Each structure stands twice: as C-alpha cells, then as structure tokens.
## 1
Amino acid sequence: MPEGDTVYLAGKRLHTALSGHELLRGELRHPRLVEHDLAGLTVTGVVSVGKHLFTRFDDGRSLHSHFRMDGSWHLYRPGMRWRRVAHEARAVLETADRVAVGFALHDLELLPTDDEDTLVGHLGPDLLDPEWGPGHDAEALRRMTARADHPLGLVLLEQRVMAGLGNLYRNDICFLLGLTPWVPIRDVPDLPGVIDLSRRLLSSNKDRPEQTTTGSLAAGEAHWVFERPGRPCRRCGTRIRTADQGDDHRARVTYWCPRCQTGPSPRPVRRATGPRRGAPGRPPPGAARTR
C-alpha cells in the first residue's frame, strides 16, 4: 500500500491539473457509481488526508478514492494512450487539456463534501497536514500513549494513531530510533521524537516520486533496512534480518538490524528474493502516473 507521501503527491498533481476546470467527461465505472455522470461539473480542488484522496466539485460533492495495494491515478494529455488496460479504469475525469484516469480503485465513493469526515474522521492526525501544530502533536501523542502495550512497529502502521505511514517508513523509523519493531510503546523513551521523525521523513519526500530515508537517492542507497534482507547494515555491517509482524492479512514484512536495534525480536525467517508484501508500488519508467 502506498505511503502517505505518495498519496499526497498524487493529490497535488491532480489538483494542479484539474482544479478550476470544467469536466468535459466525468465517467465513474465503479459498479456502485456507473449511473453518475460528472460531466459539466467544475473541480474545486483535490486534497489528501492520510492515504485517502478527495476530488471536490462545485455541486457540493466529493469523489473519494483510496489506492489500496494496486490503485493509482494517471494523468494524460487528450489522445494519449493509457499505460494500463481500459477495463481497469474506475474513473475518467477529462478537461480541455488533461485526462485523469483512476485505475483499480476498489474504494471509490461519491458523497457530499460536508460528509467527508464520515470516511476519515476515525483517523489520527495526518502527518502531512499543512495546518499541523501543537494540537496535532498532542493528539498523536495521546493516541500513541493509549497503546502502551502494543509493539512500536504495529502502532506506526495504525492509521488511527497517525495517518500516512506505511511499511517503508515504519521499518526505517525503527532503525533510526535504534529500537526493534517489537518494543512496546511503553518502553519507547521519546514518543514526541517518534512523531517528529515520522513527520520529517514524510515531508522530505512529499514533493517527488523518489523516497529516501538515508538522504541518498542513488540506486540501492535510499533505505536503511527496508527491503534489504541478508544485506549488511549500513552502520555496522551486521546482516539485516526479516520476519513477519502482525496477524493474518495484516502481517507485514519487517526488517531490522539485530545489532543497531535493541529490544525483543523473533527468530529470523528465510525468504525467497523478489517483491515483498507491504512494499509501495512504483510506476513503470516513463509512466504518466501521478506518483
């Protein structure tokens, strides 16, 4: 599932392309929404809330979308060939000079803009909220502290605590904190520092497709432990370990350095090479995708 900065950038690009423009074509191909035609409406804005997107229209309604594991929005010029097959398209929003196509958007809803909170009101503070202030810090801390017995790695993924983090960031945040993802929240010495680090990492990557936690965008150097199983730790040379954390469908592949990170951890698990669950999707080279 994409990280919050990926969704933020998608919303930013959609806002730039569509906001203030009338839709010449507004098809919703989701089974629940096929009877709706948005043509003639003007897009008033596109905003992200955690991993959710809202495209707002001048009739007082919003189109809500969520990427899940395989969804995406692509931007094209009229007449350009789509880079995904047409039967995967769930929304087509076309203005005079741009076409936004939402592919594989399993979660797509049309609702009054005033009711957006019914879909995101349960979330914790959005780490990329441009209005972030002391109140957001206090609320995130309150929600985190309330999960004193829960492991750090799972709390970082819980959108009801802080909205926006995914598997990439939670693994490397734990590394930067020097704690394994299995350390209980009650044993984390600086929870405000966890919140601040989470915000800084997401914010540093929100305006570009590439994501780095090390400060380097060079190939193979962008992450501390994420997706580096069996490879030497960048700090101490110890081999990075991997195991699942979480139950059933919520389990995520977890990476840690047994020397640099202190705290409880399971026995290492051997894994075949290849794509891993919990990894953020990336567009193919040259794609007009928003991220």
## 2
Amino acid sequence: MTDVLERTPTRTTPRAAQTAALGVALAALATVVWSGSFVTSRALHDSVPPVQQAFWRWIVALVAVAPFGARQAWRQRAAIRRHLGFVVLASLLGVTVYNTLVNQAGLTTPAATMGMIMAASPVLMAVFERASGVRLGRRRVVGLFVACAGVLLLMGGGAGFAAGDLWMIGAACCFAAYSALLRRRPAELGGVAFLFTTFLVGAGLLLPAQGVSLAVQGGFTPTTATVLPLVYVGVASSAIAFFAWNKAIALVGAARAGVVYYLQPVCVALLSWAVLGETVGPVQVLCMALILGGVMLGAAG
C-alpha cells in the first residue's frame, strides 16, 4: 500500500481529479462504516462498560492489522522512535480518548443524536486546516455551512439534551484534532505501520483505565450479542475505516474529507431507525437533504 502525503493540488488535472475522487470515496467509506459503530456503542451500553468496549475494540483492531503492519512497523522502528511524540499524541486523540468518550456517551445519548453531534467535527477540522495555512475554496466553505445548517436544524428539531451529549462534544473535538494532526504525519511513517503503531500505543494507554473498570465494574459475559459487535468495531470501524480515513486525509486534506463526514448523521439516523427502532420524522428527512446537498457541494469545491 503506497502512502501519499501531499497538499491538495491547486490546479485541476486528470491525475488531480482522480486523486480527489479517490480521497472523497475513501472518506465516504470510513464515514459509512463508522456510522455503524455509534449504533453498536448504543446497543452495548447496558452489557459492556465503555472503557472495556474501547479496549477490546482496539485489541481486535490490533490483531486484524498485525499481519500487514507489524513487520512494516518493525522495519520503520527508527522513524517511529524519532517521531514518538507525534505517534503518542495521535494515539491518545484518535484511539485512547475519542472512542472511549463515544462509548461513554452511548450510555445516555441516542445513536442518532450521537451522529448529529459528531457532525460538528468537520467545522473544527476546517478551522484547524485554515489555521495551518491551507486555503479553503469558496464552494467548500459554502458546502460546509449548508451541511452545518442541516445538522443544527436537525438538533433543534426535537433532539433533547442528555448528559452524554457533553461526552460526544469532547469526542468531536478529539476526532477533529486527530484528523488535522494527520496532515502533519511524517512522510517516512508508512500508512499501515503508522496505523498498527497507533493501535498498539492507544491500547497500551487504555490499560490503566481497563484495570480500573474491571476492578470496579467487573467484566462482561462473552456472548454472540457482545462479541460480534466488538469484532465489527474492531475490524470494520477500526482497521478498515481508520486506514481509509487516514489515506483520505493524505489525499485531499482534513477540510474536504470533513465535508464528506457530514454524511455520518444521515447514516447513523437510518441505521438507528433500522436496527434500534429510533424514530426518523419529516424534519430529520429535510435536514438530511440539506446535509447531503452540502456534502456534494463541498466535496467538489
């Protein structure tokens, strides 16, 4: 898997158009797969403690990525040591803290609302991108605000406030910071090696919290209803989705990928309706149309 780490091209060429299309497609793939993790987190809220959900998710992800990334990480160990601070920060934001906050929010916040709040992260991604000197095209900015308006209208159209919403706001901030940080990933750190290393470091950082959770809350009973969702979030929502998202950031940047991320509340709302029986009314459908329109406009900008 070849790693590409470059700024978004300023001129439209056939190669640039193909790169942009691939980046947008990978961002959409990650977004759709991640939507299922919000539903899974909500479904497991009364059977698996949040920290244990996160810990076993990353253990499964580590096992899934190891055949592809462990050898590369070993070959690049000198580069990893040189950039250890960057690796630890990325692991802390994107692995250790982000998903744990999502699982904590799932105790009290409906899955659809979790997806709506997470849709605020593209605004933060764009702010971080702009602060680092990346210019944002006019169409992208307009698309971002159209999609953001859809999210705000959706939240104001009946979504009540729960304690878990604060955890989700923290998760959105962590994910946005992680996505912006990826833009500065050293070129010598290969994508699969970087992924394996962040999963390993992130799971290691979770070990103390895992020990406390086991001592205070006890473990959970491994059943089909608990193990299969953890396998899903470990393999699909972690190994596959994080690779696709990291690659998308490298190809098109956090701002453009962030616009595509606005698809998440739409996907989560539909999945929560189909799987969990959460309601989707006319206001939600109208807002989803706004979000999709903003994504199409911003992704092309």
